[in-house]
Structures are given as C-alpha cells and as structure tokens.
C-alpha cells in the first residue's frame, strides 16, 4: 500500500513510525501534505529519504501517489480531506474525532456510502485491555441488560491544561472538549453497550481557564505565551517547548512560517471552549448515561460504573495520581508507560454473590498492547475480532453527534433528540 499523510503535527508520528518499523511490510510512505515546510522537514528527516511534499491546495494531485490517506489535521479540517480521499476511491485512516459538525458528519457518511475505499476511525481506547475487558463482560451477559452508565473523566493540569494553550482552545477548530476529547468516551459507551444515543441534554461552563477566570482570581500580568516569559520554569502552566526536542522542532522552530503559537497562556484571551461539562444521554433501548468531564483536576483518570439487570461493573483507572509542580510537559509522553501511582481495577458485582476482581490481561507495548492491535487493524486489515474493535464511519459519526448535540443543548438549554439524519430540538 502507498500511504499519504495530511497533517504533520505530533499525532501523525505514531503512524509514520509504524510504517518505518513493525508494519513496514504492509506499505510505504509515498507523499506528505502540510502547509508548514519546517514540519515537513521534521518528518522527512524521520523517514530518512525524499518523499514528495504537497501544500494543502495540491491535495488532489497528491492523491495520485496514494492508495490510502492518513488524516491527522486540525479536527475542523478532517471532513475536507476525508471526503476528497473517499471520492477518489482511496482508503482513509482518520484520527478521532471524525469531524466537528453535524453537516460534516452527513458529508462524510454520504462519501463513505458511495466510495470504494474503506474508512477507519482510530479509537485507540477500544484496544486498551481494561476497556476491552468491559466490552467482553457485557457481551457475555455478566451483568444482564445494561440499564445505566456513570462515566466520570478527570484531566489534570498537565494534560487538561494543554487543550487551552493550543488550537483546541478555539471551538471553531476542535468543537470543544465534548467533541475533541469526549468522542473517545462516548464511543466507548456506544461500543460497550452496543446501542445508539436517542437524546442528549448537557450543561457546560468555563470556570478555571481563560482570561476572565484569571482576573477573578487575581492572576494579573499574565504573559501572552510561555516562550521567554519571566515565569518560565517556575509557573506550572507555562509550557517550555525548548525543553522537548520534538515540540521544539514541530512547533517552536516552525511558527515563523504560519504563526501558530503552541504555547499560549491558558489564562489568556481567546479561550472559547469549556472546562467543566455534564451530559445526560438516553439510549434507544432505554439505558441512561451520566457523563462528566473536568479539565483542571489535580490527578488524571476515570471511573466507570455500569449497572445491569444482573449486576454491576466498576472500573477505576488512575493514569496519573498527582501533578508534579512545574510539569507542563507530560512526563509519560516520552516512552514512560506508567506514571507514578498509576493503577487500574475492574470489579464485577453480581446479585447475591461476593464481588469478583477481574484480572486485566496486559500485552506488550504501549497502552498494554492496545496500540499494536490498533495498528494491526489499520495496516494489516480487519481481523476476526469478536470484540469488533475496528471502527468505521458510523461509529465515528455516532460519537461526534453526541458531542455536537451536547454542545447544542448547553447553548440552548434544551434537550436534543438524535435522528438518523442529524439532530433536532426535542419536544
């Protein structure tokens, strides 16, 4: 297979490295597309040979050099490239979220239906052993018919803050965290319980980040960005890109070309997304989901409780137990698999029986072996997977539409009912 890449930020690297490493027998990288020549240079150095490079305006010409396209651009641009590639009959691998609007969901769905190419949305959380174990238990009937799900996710002031210093802080680019981040979580619930959302109600707020909150807490004289700021190295919210070779090359050294500032102050002007979100979803078969997302917690992880007619599952995950001072760069991002204090525990409770702790089988490699399984599905093709972890456009649309509907509900104060063609205000 000949693979072309569009969007060469850090998200593309996992797929580039796979084709240069353990999956090199499945295909080769034949073209790159990005508006920034410096970032193109970073990946050309990584690939180690000349590869044709294209500007976004020449994407159509690039398709002649590819059998498949990996899309890892800013979220709001996904639909443009996905639809064009599908209409050219190419396979498409797209980072989550599939897109950011109901209109783009409809356009991608129509293109996927008429295309001879396949589309894969890379929901890597499905492949995590703990999340796969939940799917396996529910499918086996361990808790009977699912009646309700409670899902609480906490992002800490390393990971959560990062969304408020880069392009994600602008809702027009990312759809907000209910689309960009929560699409992972909504997809997990959809996949776990094998059901589709029927209605959504949400409330959201921006309570911690942004200039208004900074002023209210007396945080005056904030820098516009971290680079060369007086507090760099002592302020935990200032990201020192020069301290990370990859961030420096991809962003700091590249910003003179396109003006993209990767280290904006999280307490600055221009934040249009929320940092506290609560969502209530009713599913078609009657199950209820209560979901919450907080982006300024002192620790990172999630808790899921799934109730059924025959029992209950409880999954507790600590991804980072505490946030070290002055650690704006994720200390687990450079190959360290587990942060200090990380843990996971899955417990099955059945009526009239003692609780049973479920052993979570780990594989080799990142995310308990989950990344390797995902890359197999992407580059080697579908396997006979009883858990059906590989996701297509329908799963991508289903998760995005919960987030889009939640944003609409939060803006209007009214619940939103989902239909096959999009959303409409609930009666």
Automatic annotation (TrEMBL):
Chain ranges of the Gfo/Idh/MocA-like oxidoreductase N-terminal domain: 1-122
A Pfam family reported for this protein in Swiss-Prot or TrEMBL: GFO_IDH_MocA
Native source species: Actinomadura bangladeshensis
GO MF: nucleotide binding
Start and end residues of each Gfo/Idh/MocA-like oxidoreductase C-terminal domain: 135-418
Coiled-coil stretches: none
The protein's name: Gfo/Idh/MocA family oxidoreductase
Family (UniProt): Belongs to the Gfo/Idh/MocA family.
Domain of life: Bacteria
